[in-house]
Design brief:
Strand content: 15-25%
Helix content: 25-40%
Domain Fe/B12 periplasmic-binding: 86-348
Organism: Nocardiopsis alba
Family: Belongs to the bacterial solute-binding protein 8 family.
Radius of gyration: 20 Å
Protein name: Iron-siderophore ABC transporter substrate-binding protein
Distance between the termini: 46 Å
Structural class: alpha/beta
Number of strands: 14
InterPro entries: ABC_transptr_periplasmic_BD, Bact_iron-sidero_bind
Strand order of the largest sheet: 1-2-12-11-10-13-14
């Protein structure tokens, strides 16, 4: 049962992920252009799953039942007896969500190769629970949570799901990124903050449209195509539509070049394929330490000058990875809109 109202039903159409730091699977493109990164099994079914999640409770009413993923691909009810006050979050998207709603979590899990939270978020006295793939259940139990929020992408073991439910009501969405707006509404359903969440999303969508108009005006009336390039340890990606940033660019109304205009997470490329970044703009970020990636081999390499935006003296800019790729929530999205506004201003 979806909690998307008429005002936000458009979010479903716009929301077509994975943060990129979790495990992925790839499928060959069949045209020798490297691989399309699609994430875990069932990636293409997440939008259908998300429409079945949420609550029928009146805004702010408790106790309530929230339909969520109680096992991989299985929707079931979680009863929440009272408005949660001690919340644990198991990834960056949930962290952004609860903080956006004015709630400080008591415990935070995160990727193994990252700190407790990205710099753009203030987490107060929250306990660092370590990596979400190596959770200490006793530590979680000792925090006495009354709600645990996460995704089945991160908590992919059904036995672990059951163990978390035994500690506290646990509400799991399918995956981060591609469903970031639906996940925000689901988390808000669990917290009894659904009205505030809708207001924040409405404000974001209105601002995204305004930023898009400003970009077109500053760009001489033309809608630019945007290549989203990301360097990571062991892989280099051009991000597609089924990602956090892909959804956001659709909301802003910006176009994608052919290689990235795909209903998948990303296209994984080699340094020799960098000219597939064919956008009028090339915006690139780096996850983790640059020396662990192919950033230097690409940006300082012999083919960089043949990337269309570089060759044509177009807009080529490094962007902060922690918001553009890891933000995964409405506060992160607002930071991206800030950056896009600055870009528009620089074009005037």
């Amino acid at each position: 049962m979806s909690r998307l109202t008429t005002a936000t039903t458009a979010l479903v159409a716009g929301a077509l992920l994975l943060s990129g730091c979790g495990t992925t699977e790839t499928s060959g493109t069949g045209d020798n252009r490297s691989n399309v990164a699609t994430g875990q099994d069932g990636f293409q079914d997440v939008r259908e799953l998300s429409e079945r999640l949420g609550t029928d409770a009146a805004p702010g009413e408790f106790p309530r039942v929230v339909d969520n993923l109680v096992a991989n691909g299985e929707v079931g009810p979680t009863e929440i007896p009272a408005k949660p006050e001690r919340v644990i979050v198991l990834d960056t998207g949930e962290l952004d969500n609860v903080l956006s709603l004015g709630i400080e979590p008591v415990g935070i899990a995160h990727p193994a190769d990252a700190g407790i939270a990205p710099d753009y978020l203030e987490v107060g006295d929250a306990v660092d629970l370590g990596a979400y793939d190596a959770l200490d259940l006793e530590q979680i139990k000792n925090l006495e949570p009354d709600l645990i929020l996460g995704t089945t992408l991160r908590i992919d073991d059904d036995g672990l799901k059951e163990s978390l439910q035994e500690i506290a009501p646990t509400v799991l969405a399918p995956r981060p990124g591609v469903l970031w707006k639906e996940n925000f509404l689901l988390n808000a359903d669990a917290l009894g903050e659904e009205e505030q969440a809708r207001e924040l999303l409405d404000a974001y969508e209105e601002r995204a449209a305004e930023v898009g108009d400003a970009i077109v005006e500053a760009n001489g009336g033309e809608v630019p195509t945007v290549s989203m390039l990301r360097f990571m340890a062991g892989r280099t990606r051009l991000y597609g539509n089924d990602s956090f940033i892909g959804v956001l660019l659709q909301d802003v109304g910006l176009k994608r070049p052919e290689a990235e205009d795909i209903d998948d997470l990303a296209l994984e490329i080699s340094p020799e394929e960098i000219t597939l970044a064919e956008g009028d703009w090339v915006l690139w970020g780096t996850y983790g330490e640059a020396d662990a990636t192919e950033q230097a081999a690409v940006v300082d390499g012999p083919l960089w000058d043949r990337v269309p935006a570089v060759a044509d003296d177009g807009l080529v800019r490094e962007i902060p990875d922690e918001t553009w790729y890891l933000g995964l929530g409405v506060t992160g999205a607002e930071h991206v809109l800030d950056d896009l506004t600055e870009i528009a201003d620089s074009l005037r």
